[in-house]
């Protein structure tokens, strides 16, 4: 009895427990579409329609930047691929800052150490090399052939992974790379507009893209150093622009003054450059959105189809000649890429 009385007294002495009439107002659980779309987008578009719009935007931006680059560098006569790439980097830096700091599409991550900074700087240098080579190759090669060469990225990825990390794939993966290489050899031998220098720098761009993916996985391995793709772009883009600045001044001369002088006589160049730089950023943004709303596997499948779609669209727009053997070689390369992806999944 004493223990019970003592317990009762202690309970009564707590004023927060004396008011048994208190009612807690617990809000109702929101429905699934609201929870999945906190910004209210789901109230306008259904998830299926939203995903379709994002995928369509991905195709538009990826193919659009290729076509705009080709038009500027080959048809419009703006022969400054390094400066054009630097504009892409400045655009990506500005848009990334706005998207992360103001729109908050992903949480902002900071560079934590000088070691991490140097790693990102090294990635930026490889990134510069790859993008400049890719843009320069469009001066000499049609988009269709450029995309055929770009489809061989898995071949170079497997080589660099073995040379740098000693990572060995299964026999099925290596066998799948045979049609990748054979197809591009077939397409090269029958390409009517084949240009040897353009071919070499396009190979360099493809190899640089593969090297970046391998080195990125090697350098940013610790959990503390890993950055979200949008944050990585935020830091890599201004570094890349600084790397490109001395090269564009040395190789292309006073290109800024030339561009401004050209804009005085033809204001359309301003629209082309702004549109080109904006679409270049949208490529990275839609890559992120496709992965977020679908999966990394879906992005890989879309990438396999993108080369073929870009080739067809470019032939329809620019009317560059193609041969049956060239199309067959391209098809063999794409088939090899699909087989490679399936072998990697298994």
From TrEMBL:
Annotated compartments: Membrane
Topology class, membrane: Multi-pass membrane protein
Ribonucleoprotein listed as a keyword: no
Main location: membrane
InterPro entries (alphabetical): EmrE-like (IPR037185), Sugar_P_trans_dom (IPR004853), TPT_transporter (IPR050186)
Transmembrane regions listed in the UniProt entry: 41-60, 80-100, 120-138, 144-164, 171-187, 193-211, 232-251, 267-290, 297-318, 324-341
One GO CC term on file: membrane
Alphabetic keyword roster: Membrane, Transmembrane, Transmembrane helix
The keyword Transmembrane helix appears for this protein: yes
Protein name (Swiss-Prot/TrEMBL): Sugar phosphate transporter domain-containing protein
Species the sequence originates in: Nyssa sinensis
